[in-house]
Amino acid sequence: MKLGVFYSELRGNHDVLFRLKAEKLGIFLVSNGIYHAIIKEKGEPSPVLQKQGADYYVLSEDLQTRGFSTDEVDSNVKVVTYSDIADHIMNDYDKLAWL
Amino acid sequence: MSNKILFVVQRPPYKSENPKLAITHAMSCYTADMHIDEEVEPTLAYVGDGVLNCIKDQKAEEIYGIVSTDQHLKIQLTGDMKILVCKEDMERLGIQEERLVDGRDLGADMDLNVVTFEEILKEMDEGCDHLMFF
Question: What pLDDT digit, counting tens, does each position of A66-75 carry?
Answer without folding.
Answer: 999 999 999 9
